[in-house]
Specification:
about 250 residues; binds adenosine-5'-triphosphate; alpha/beta; six-stranded mixed sheet; four-stranded antiparallel sheet; 10 strands; Rossmann fold
């Protein structure tokens, strides 16, 4: 199985069941380098399961996950190395509470890439500085607000220079006044050319930042297209129904 060189991620026929219930019914999806794709869909449609499958946190029952043409769903791959190539940030519980903010950011580079502590910390401090949080480097995560913690979690995910960043509803658990700072960070990463697949309920944000929108419904991709067209003129009745429910 092959994929064009500029394709970062290709999913082919991804299936996942929990017990008797199949929640992903054969997902096909390609993401090009520097593309920002918003994955939207009703609660329970399978967004989290799909993102977790991409970075091998969730096993799949069938299908293939290709990262730059390499089959990472092959059971022989080194999972830690794959996860360093695909950053994943969840809704919450992202940071290790017993590690300093800086150690959170540098851990993967040191363990997976074998970067020396001084080098990892230099880069980690640069990343923290870029989000205005270098002063918290030696603090534990509980000193930070939820929005600051999520921004550190995103920096931790990109500290290994991943080829793909997966964001799973990273603002959903935040107080409304903290959402903006996290969205601003994602926007700046998108503008810098980061390849992003993000599940989000923030429709205004998706419309502004995403190149493409993929609508998942009951474990199937039911619509996929350029963001502007998707929001302006959804093809599917269920897309219209979904957008009218979540519009904000
Ligand atoms: N570990 C699990 N065991 C059993 N069922 C699960 C498990 N994880 C997810 N599911 C089920 O799979 C379906 C898809 O869940 P998933 O969390 O992927 O949806 P989602 O689109 O991310 O939803 P939300 O927007 O609410 O986060 C749901 O019916 C959910 O209950």
């Amino acid at each position: 199985m092959s994929a064009p060189a500029e394709t970062v991620l290709s999913l082919r026929g991804i299936r996942r069941s929990f017990g008797e219930v199949e929640v992903l019914h054969g997902i096909d999806l390609d993401i090009a380098a520097h593309e920002v794709v918003a994955l939207i869909g009703p609660s329970g449609s399978g967004k989290s399961t799909l993102l977790r499958a991409v970075n091998l946190t969730e096993p799949i029952d069938d299908g293939v996950v290709l990262l730059r043409g390499e089959d990472i769903s092959d059971p022989r791959v080194n999972v830690d190395r794959v996860r360093a190539r695909i950053g994943l940030v969840f809704q919450h519980y992202n940071l290790f509470p017993h590690l300093s903010v800086l150690d959170n950011v540098t851990l993967a580079s040191r363990v997976v890439h074998g970067l020396r502590r001084a080098e990892a910390e230099r880069r980690g401090l640069e990343l923290l500085d870029s989000i205005g949080l270098a002063d918290f480097a030696t603090s534990f995560p509980d000193r930070l607000s939820g929005g600051q913690q999520q921004r550190v979690a995103i920096m931790r995910a990109i500290a290994t220079n991943p080829e793909l960043l997966l964001l799973d509803e990273v603002t959903s658990a935040l107080d409304p006044e903290l959402v903006g700072e996290v969205l601003a960070l994602i926007r700046s990463l998108a503008e810098a050319g980061t390849t992003i697949l993000m599940a989000t309920h923030e429709m205004t944000f998706a419309r502004e930042v995403a190149d493409r929108v993929v609508l998942l419904d009951a474990g199937r991709v039911v619509e996929s297209g350029p963001a502007a067209q998707f929001f302006a003129n959804p093809r599917e009745e269920r897309t219209r129904a979904f957008l009218s429910r979540v519009a904000r």
